[in-house]
Amino acid sequence: MVGIVANLHIEHWKADRKTNEHRALGDLYDDLDGHLDTFVELTMGRCGSSQLQKGTVSLNSQAYADLIKTALEKVATTIEQATADAAQDLVNVLADMQTALNHAKYFLMIQ
Which of 26, 41, 100, 108 is the Cys-Cys partner for 31 at CB 3.0 to 4.6 Å? Predict the structure, then answer.
């Protein structure tokens, strides 16, 4: 998700500032960035660890519609996992991410 959020931020910068696209992508980035931060902190609190796994983030020029669809798929899968683990706090944050993604999908007229 970190990579998706970073790539959405790039798409926001690339979008024409005179359009709703720029604002919708900016709002989505802001929402997801905050929710992702909360999700990671809650997960770390649940695990009792402040250690993060090492990884890389790829920045690419994937279309924002594809980024949003991929993010919705990842969130849905993670909701299933969190529900199975009875992690309602994580489910709530993921639901907020899902709401932000669907809201952007509506404003950006993504099918």
Answer: 100
**Which amino acid type is present at position 100?**
A
Phi then psi for residue 60, to 5 deg, are -140, 180
Structure tokens at 39: 């999700």
Domain boundaries in the chain? 2-107
User: For residue range 60-102, what is the model confidence (pLDDT) as tens digits?
Assistant: 878 999 999 999 999 999 999 999 988 999 999 999 999 999 9
Give the H or E element holding residue 97.
helix 88-107
Q: What are the residues whose beta carbons fall under 8 Å from the beta carbon of 58, sequence distance 6 or more?
A: 3
Q: 32, 11 in Cβ contact below 8 A?
A: no
pLDDT at 53 over 80: no
Give dist(CA 42, CA 87) in Å, integer. Answer: 10
Residue tagged 């900016």 (tokens): 26
The H helix count followed by the E strand count for the chain is 4, 0
